[in-house]
Amino acid sequence: MTTTDFAELHDDLRAVAADVLSRGRTVDWATLVAAGWVGLEVPEKLGGSGASFAEVAVICEELGRAAASTSYLGGAVLAVGVLNTLADSGVRDPLLAGIADGTIRAAAALGEFTVSADGRLTGRADFVPDAAGADRLLVPATDAGGADVVVVAEGLTITAQPLLDETRSVAAVTAGGIEVDGAAVLRADGITAVRNRAALAVACDSLGLAEAMLAATVDYAKKRTQFGRAIGSFQAVKHACADMQVKNSVARALIREAINAAEADADAPVAMAKSYACSAAVDVVGKALQLHGGIGYTWESGIHVYLKRAAFNRSLFGSPAAHRQRLAQRYRTSKAK
């Protein structure tokens, strides 16, 4: 199945999301749960919708379009993604069910962690979304034998990290050799896929905010007059808006390809989507700021909110340079073969 196979469903989901997010920029956990977004990828037998990442991507895009402040990225996208790499168990299933019904808010610390042979967890993750206030911390790690595991950890140190982007909450999560219960160390299959979905979710957010800024700029260019004409009639403004549209169209095409390839855990499409979409979003918002003239630099315009979010997205879960380096390494490896 591809994203186009469910176009009507996605349109309905997008319309509902737009309605919910129009009520205010800050959306609490209870509202996310009531809307059914938190449990989209939770299996139906555990109270979720049994949907795929393609549906989650629609929500991520709409959250970016509204520059909404929520705990959806950490509490749903990443937490459920991590839990879905685990086999059914008496630990995993209650966590997924609790997330779906809103009684548990989890967060996933994607960093560099190891579990020693004597059961001690060591490592650190920076810029962990929505870690503060989470009921459970899920920590992907490597055990003494080199296998991927997920630790349902307690006793970790969580330190809030300040951001210019006020729509997000992130923290540093550290483990200094704390002892973990063996029953809380679960064998995982697909941690690389979780890191890819984290990058792709941020790319979807960037696409949404870039499209919102293009729409706002076009609307402003139709209304703002200069020399007795709408500024949208000037060739330079037309060209600038066209460039913004091209960037957004390319970003959407790359993201669509990455979503379709997500089930196969394809690194290259995700790297291309993340590097391009997040860079393009910064460019598009910057151009929107310029085309709004003096009013664009005021607090009331709200463009600064999108610019700071776009700038943070660009670095979150891998900078464009880091993802391009991944692509180059894959190309060199394939050529060597």
TrEMBL record:
The keyword Oxidoreductase applies. InterPro entries: Acyl-CoA_Oxase/DH_mid-dom_sf, AcylCo_DH-like_C, AcylCo_DH/oxidase_C, AcylCoA_DH/ox_N, AcylCoA_DH/ox_N_sf, AcylCoA_DH/oxidase_NM_dom_sf. GO terms for molecular function: oxidoreductase activity. Its EC number is 1.-.-.-. It is an enzyme of class 1 (oxidoreductase). Residues 197-330 form the Acyl-CoA dehydrogenase/oxidase C-terminal domain. Belongs to the acyl-CoA dehydrogenase family. This is Acyl-CoA dehydrogenase family protein.
